[in-house]
Amino acid sequence: MDEASHTYLLFGQRFRSDIALPELGPELARDSRRDDTTAIVIRRGAVPEDGTQVGPQIGPFSHAAPDALWLRIPNIARYLVQGGNRVTYAPEPGIDDDSVRVFLLGSCIGTLLLQRGQLVLHGNAFAIGDGCALCVGPSGAGKSTLAARMMQRGHPVIADDVCPIDAEGRAIPGMARMKLWQDTADRLAIDTSRLRRIRPGLAKYDLPMGETFHAQPLPVRAIYVLSPWNRETFAVKELSGLAKFQALRDNTYRFRFLKGMALGPGHMRQCGDLAARVPVAELHRPRQGFDIDGLVDAIRDDFVRRNVLA
Asked: What is the mean pLDDT of each run of 10 residues along the chain (310 residues)?
């Protein structure tokens, strides 16, 4: 790695990158005495144009083999994630760094964590009392809106979108920023005029969390699967047995990648361990109107019922 490399700490791991990653916050101070041989390396380099050189196709623009993932984002870049310790990226001519970083910091980092044996869920985690709630669900269920509103109401956010859980059942802190679409920002009265777009031409913004970011792991006290429905009330439905396991599997980050890299058996054990440790529930919310404060209150009330709040 050359002298111009940038060093960061993310998800408890040291990263060395030849491209600046401002979304990760301040760079770590350079220390020539520190051994960086264990750092995860991100650098520009040669990535095969044809993913079949890496492994079988697992999706429209992805190929995988044990411990390796090839990913092409049309008109943006090709990425090769290997061994849980390096990402090589090859941008398309003339593409901007912001667009390259969007996928580096999402799919590629999530894949690295999977390769390193982490259980990674696709959701948001925020502190309540002495633990945290983790909310998962399909796109459009309201995860980011909920996390942003929780932050506004004084609950520090631990992770947004990529949420790794350690062997002790704790959520590991991610990036100290949240990605918000313009309509979500409008709903929550968040001024985006001074916020950075995550990439040019996209009405999605980086919202720095500042002091509202929780930088230490917290035990997951409950997992909620957000599920809009056509009723006017909120309801919590406890899951048990196989349904708990299935909910975790269905909301694993980039499950197709995980399966393609032959990481399924370990992942099944992790899901089983977490399901045995943490309650999992479906949280139904009215589809119409999106009463965000009602949703926040429903989660807080359920935490009280579980005697989680101090």
From this structure: 72 91 81 65 95 95 96 97 96 95 94 95 91 88 89 92 92 91 93 93 91 91 92 92 94 94 93 94 89 92 70
Q: Fill in the DSSP letter of residue 213.
A: B
CA distances from residue 239 to 3, 45, 59, 89, 248 in whole angstroms, order as listed: 52, 46, 31, 41, 11
In contact, 290 and 187? CB cutoff 8 Å: yes
Give the helix/strand (H/E) hosting 217: none
Domain 119-305, classified CATH 2.60.40, yes or no: no
Q: How far apart are CA 84 and CA 242, in angstroms?
A: 30
Q: pTM for the whole thing?
A: 0.91
In the chain, where are the structural domains located? 6-115, 119-305
Could you give the angle at which helices 143-152 and 292-305 cross, rounded to 10 degrees? 80
